Amino acid sequence: MNESEVEKTILDVAKRALAASHQLAALSTEQKNAALLRIADLLEAPETLPVLLEANERDLQTGASLGLSDAMLDRLRLTPQRIKGMIEGTRQVVDLEDPVGAILEQKTHKKGFSIEKVRVPIGVIGIIYESRPNVTIDCAVLCLKSGNSTILRGGREAFHSNMTLAAIIRRALEETGLPIDAIQLIPTVDRYALTVLMKLDEYVHCIIPRGGEGLIRFVSENARMPVIKHYKGVCNIYLDADAERQMSIKVTVNAKCQRPSVCNAAENLIVHKDVLQSIFPDVAKALKEEGVQLRVDDCAAETLEAFGGIPFTMATEEDYHTEYVDKIISIKTVDNLEEAITFVNTYGSGHSDAILTENEEAAARFQTEVDAATVYWNVSTRFTDGFEFGLGAEIGISTDKLHARGPMGLNELTTYKYLIRGHGEIK
Amino acid sequence: MNESEVEKTILDVAKRALAASHQLAALSTEQKNAALLRIADLLEAPETLPVLLEANERDLQTGASLGLSDAMLDRLRLTPQRIKGMIEGTRQVVDLEDPVGAILEQKTHKKGFSIEKVRVPIGVIGIIYESRPNVTIDCAVLCLKSGNSTILRGGREAFHSNMTLAAIIRRALEETGLPIDAIQLIPTVDRYALTVLMKLDEYVHCIIPRGGEGLIRFVSENARMPVIKHYKGVCNIYLDADAERQMSIKVTVNAKCQRPSVCNAAENLIVHKDVLQSIFPDVAKALKEEGVQLRVDDCAAETLEAFGGIPFTMATEEDYHTEYVDKIISIKTVDNLEEAITFVNTYGSGHSDAILTENEEAAARFQTEVDAATVYWNVSTRFTDGFEFGLGAEIGISTDKLHARGPMGLNELTTYKYLIRGHGEIK
């Protein structure tokens, strides 16, 4: 396609998504659930598996020839097990409460008319993602349940897998009488398509980018519509002067090691100078035993040298900003609580931060002044997750502050409108 | 200032605003109210009036020499009465409930820790506005009460008035022990300052533009941070097949004529063909008697010609998109409810739309399918307003769908965070 063909194609996708969104907003829960169940059934049909695996094989071969890393290829791969995960995930969404139509507030104006604030779908949501084809199903079903049209833009490397999944979804929509344009995959891998999409704020109400830092930066710098970023997780653990020894070891090890590759794993450990020589060496030893590399500042280095037997390297300024997603942790010593809070607000990514302390006052101050989506007191940061928070689902974890913050479930995919009902009242 | 000086100045403003916002988030309601009362007292102090009027006079003289229209000069003018309005407005905000700290949700995780979702300030809010200097006070006090730092960027023509008002605010902050950088006016009228500010998404969390279409478009196309638009109000009234005659006349006249210059005044009247010859001529006559010009389509023209005595011109496509803010209304005839809904969703600005009908089913469908912040049934659109909706204040009316929709009060100037409190729980 040349540029003007891409423009025409994307404009057409966006217009049809908007028209479909007006129909979706009026659907009953039963109609939406019937479509979701049909998606699950079609994914489960015996004839689907070979088609999906074949499309995925084409992507894997292209990926290998493009020199994708093994980790990338693994994320790209569809297996019967992973497809089963999509099917189960879709059926779980059927069981979730429909957020649309919930009455959020209700009052009567003194002139007599009623004012109702009700939950409604956002409209058209663009999902821009990389690699993992399961995102196609995960995001589409959550957007559908919440009454939104979805425009999907997956990675170039997963194009055939995504096209096949999108075709299944659209067949399910058609078979259950829903507008097929409610879920569309952008039918070209041309990067210019993304540029065009990001200018269509008249038709697309929100973009959720899911992927690496580069993609998220590109989208938030160029999109005209609101963007809800799922940015990096630089999570901090602060060992306060009044931290308890065993809890400090247990929680820090869990936050760093239980699954280092996820966004709610800890990346920085901040240590109050009063516990640097008492508790910190035990924490450092436990981390070392789990195979964690330590990157430390001068004070911590001195302590570890005196303690002996724990290898470390010196931390750079850049380290404190880094989401390692690996068994590495940066250590920073502070003189007081205030310094710890400033450190978190400077280097953290506003995702999840924890204070470990027996001092209630220090905890309250940390929880008030740390500017993050989730602030923990004596609990591992690993719990930041839509399912753990009882949202029933998760389209991602917002590191933004507007519209949605932290784990995003179905409610976070909605907005509201005011409905006024009266009897001819005038001003 | 040259470009690099502007960049340095704006970066400095933004960094100081962010640092102040962390202090503001921890303030008690009493501390914030003390500062608000001090602002009101300083505005009321006898020595303030001449200083303010003198600064305003400089702006008026520059404005006149720049050839500003009388309407523009009137909006720019400060009078003792208008200053009194600011003082009263500020004192009213003292009496409003502090939104910060409200617990929105609370649950206990099965492992034992508590999860609390609490309301917190957004952080740093940029307000970009034109002409009216009272916006300086109105916005600053609402942002302060909700715990946000504010960066104000007023119009070039009101620079001296705004600088004087900002100095009063900052003196009040200082005298009551609050961080003075919580409220800052950009100290240059250079347009490049706006361009720089809009890129600083690391420090400024949200921009609210208040002004004409050109300004709003410029900001939403260029800002990297979320923008909550207060865009035009193209409000529609739909006379359904089952509309009641007297109510149709009364509500349409009120929606168009009670104050034509505001954003919730009606601009388009949609008429079902079944009432085109029965009710519409009476509505048209009543509008004519109020001095309203009619711009009509072919069907309405034919009807009015047969009826006689009501002047009209033909409507263009552009008319239906236009916010006249004047005594002009566009008329569109439709064959059915569906066509009316499509018209509203195509030409309306998502602000306020009304259906007039005795048919409950038609009303329900209109209210569900019209995609607007406020949808009325048998009530004038003129009620879309933070005070009428019981919000106690209004920083504007959002025509966006994300974060805040419709009238924005103090709650809409906040976000939330999750606070987790436990006893060493790990995953």
What does this structure look like?
- The structure is a homodimer of 427-residue chains.
- With 427 residues, the first copy, chain A, is α/β, with parallel strands linked by helices.
- Chain A folds into 2 domains: 3-231 and 404-421, Aldehyde Dehydrogenase, Chain A, domain 1, CATH 3.40.605.10; 235-385, Aldehyde Dehydrogenase, Chain A, domain 2 (3-Layer(aba) Sandwich).
- The first copy, chain A, is built from 15 helices and 16 strands.
- Chain A has helices at residues 3-24, 29-44, 48-65, 70-76, 80-95, 134-145, 159-175, 191-197, 213-222, 245-257, 280-289, 298-307, 317-320, 337-347, 360-369; strands at 103-108, 114-121, 124-129, 149-153, 183-185, 206-210, 235-239, 266-272, 293-296, 313-314, 328-334, 352-356, 374-379, 396-398, 406-408, 414-425.
- A 7-stranded parallel sheet of chain A has the order 10-9-11-8-7-12-13, sandwiched between helices. A 4-stranded parallel sheet of chain A has the order 5-4-3-6, with helices on both faces.
- The longest helix of chain A is centred in the first third of the chain and has 22 residues, at 3-24.
- Chain A starts with a helix and ends with a strand.
Condensed summary:
The structure is a homodimer of 427-residue chains. Chain A is α/β, with parallel strands linked by helices and 427 residues long.
CATH superfamily of the largest domain in chain A: Aldehyde Dehydrogenase, Chain A, domain 1
- CATH class assignment of the largest domain in chain A: Alpha Beta
With strands numbered from the N-terminus, the spatial order across the biggest sheet of chain A is 10-9-11-8-7-12-13
Q: What does the radius of gyration of chain A come to?
A: 24 Å
Strand content of chain A: 15-25%
Q: What's the quaternary structure here? A: homodimer
Counting DSSP H or I runs of 4 or more residues, the number of helices of chain A is: 15
End-to-end C-alpha gap of chain A: 55 Å
The greatest interface here is: A-B, 69 and 69 residues
Structural class of chain A: alpha/beta
Domain count of chain A: 2
Mean pLDDT score of chain A: 96
The total strand number of chain A stands at 16
User: Strand count, sense and closure of the main sheet of chain A?
Assistant: 7 strands, parallel
